[in-house]
Design goal:
By secondary structure, this protein is of the alpha/beta class. It folds into two domains: about 5-235, Spore Coat Polysaccharide Biosynthesis Protein SpsA, Chain A, CATH 3.90.550; about 240-395, 2-C-methyl-D-erythritol 2,4-cyclodiphosphate synthase (60s Ribosomal Protein L30, Chain: A), CATH 3.30.1330.50. It is about 30% helix and about 30% strand. The chain contains twelve helices and 18 strands. It has helices at about 35-45, 60-65, 85-95, 120-125, 175-185, 195-200, 225-235, 280-290, 295-300, 315-325, 350-360, 375-380, and strands at about 5-10, 30, 35, 50-55, 80, 105-110, 135-140, 145, 155-160, 165-175, 205-210, 240-255, 255-260, 260-265, 270, 330-340, 365-370, 385-395. The strands form five sheets. It has a seven-stranded mixed β-sheet, sandwiched between helices. Strands 15-12-18-16-17 form a five-stranded mixed β-sheet. A hairpin with a 2-residue loop joins strand 13 (about 255-260) and strand 14 (about 260-265). The longest helix has 14 residues, at about 225-235. The structure holds magnesium ion (MG). Magnesium ion (MG) binds near residues 249 and 272. Magnesium ion (MG) binds near residues 247, 249, 272, 278 and 281.
Length: about 400
């Protein structure tokens, strides 16, 4: 059976006044990236999610682009849409934005919950086969007190609220698209605290499915402390892999070689089906090796005429996409070019920048080195250039 088309809406239009200074919390750093990037990645890399639409504040386009750097070109990412005055308005605008090509299901999630896990997303979607809606939630285990004042040191218990049947609602909250669209239209003007409440007001049947205790919402400045602890645990659970690549191309008559994406004037060129960038080919194979995805030839068969003369950046881009599709991260690359000439040193920084741009990592995570073979062998006889590369990659287990 074909899976029902499912689009995730991530609500990121809030101004985050409660999280204190430093701008909206969804754009603040959590580890090496912004909160929203962690959140978006969880949905972009989920097999059951076909597309992701993020709802942002109209003043936040620059912050959004900076925060999403590295994910902006993701094929599942739709352009962002400006939200409304309140969260409920933003969600309605987001749902409306999908109405022209309505998916079967929509999942609505808060940008400030970056630790949403793949099984929780899958459970919400699975429950939509039998319900109009389904939300991630956790049963209450704490005893619940109602105070006779709202807050502060003066609060005094007014009553103990029976906790039987009480759940804490999280996101994502998933719904049949057409039903939640009607429900949001009908609820306009009312103030409801979450999308499940909008669905309940429309008499939709909404299932409670198990969320995760880690799926915290970053609400106040203090929450970043707990978020950093959860992030460290997530990073510690990554597995690290190293891949290796090797490539050789022969010289033929020409005026320049292309190595690691940089054109270098020379009295020869490199012969090959593509642009014969041996450095980039070795690096592509190293990355593919680390994730067990075969080699360049599997993805771009030399027998296929469409790759004739192709710029090698498309190969490296493909390898990067395959890593990103697994929510992996390229930690470090090391390329060694082996030739008597041309001289590589003067072009090294440009090469690191060119590779970094394609892989969307800092040049400091890329090394390019060169060596000769003391005039021994085919590289020593100046018959061609060889390249070796290693790539270290972190993958979620
Ligand atoms: Mg090659």
């Amino acid at each position: 059976m074909k899976k029902p088309e499912t689009i995730a809406i991530i609500v990121a239009a809030g101004r985050g006044a409660r999280a204190g200074a430093g701008g909206p919390k969804q754009y603040r750093a959590l580890g090496e990236r912004a909160v929203i990037a962690w959140t978006a990645e969880a949905f972009l890399t989920h097999d059951d999610i076909d597309a992701v639409r993020i709802i942002i504040h109209r003043d936040d386009h620059d912050a959004y682009e900076a925060a999403m750097d590295g994910l902006l070109a993701h094929p599942k990412l739709l352009p962002p849409v400006d939200g409304g005055a309140q969260r409920q308005d933003s969600v309605r605008i987001g749902v409306e934005s999908l109405a022209a090509n309505a998916p079967a299901y929509v999942l609505i999630h808060d940008a400030a919950r970056p630790f949403i896990d793949a099984p929780s997303i899958a459970r919400v979607i699975a429950a939509l086969q039998t319900h109009d809606g389904a939300i991630a939630a956790l049963p209450m285990h704490d005893t619940i007190k109602r105070a006779d004042r709202h807050a502060g040191a003066d609060a005094v218990i007014d009553a103990t609220v029976p906790r039987d049947g009480l759940w804490r609602a999280q996101t994502p909250q998933g719904f049949h698209f057409d039903k939640i669209l009607s429900a949001h239209r009908a609820a306009q003007g009312e103030v409801l605290t979450d999308d499940a409440a909008v669905a309940e007001a429309a008499q939709m049947r909404v299932a409670l499915v198990a969320g995760s205790p880690d799926n915290m919402k970053i609400t106040q400045a203090e929450d970043f402390g707990m978020a950093e602890i959860l992030l460290r645990r997530k990073v510690n659970e990554m597995e690290y892999r190293t891949g290796h690549g090797y490539d050789v191309h022969t010289f033929e008559d020409g005026a320049a070689v292309i190595l690691c994406g940089v054109e270098i004037p020379h009295d020869k060129k490199l012969k090959g089906h593509s642009d014969a960038d041996a450095g980039m080919h070795a690096l592509t194979d190293a990355i593919l090796g680390a994730i067990g995805e075969g080699d360049i030839g599997d993805h771009f068969p030399p027998s296929d005429p469409q790759w004739k003369g192709a710029p090698s950046r498309i190969f490296l881009t493909k390898a990067h996409e395959l890593v990103a599709a697994r929510a992996g991260r390229i930690i470090h690359c090391d390329v060694t070019l082996i030739c008597e000439a041309p001289k590589i040193g003067p072009h090294r920084e440009k090469m690191r920048a060119a590779l970094g741009e394609i892989l969307q990592i800092e040049p400091s995570r890329i090394s390019v080195k060169a060596t000769t073979t003391e005039q021994l062998g085919f590289t020593g006889r100046r018959e061609g250039i060889a390249a070796m590369a290693t790539a270290t990659i972190a993958l979620p287990q």
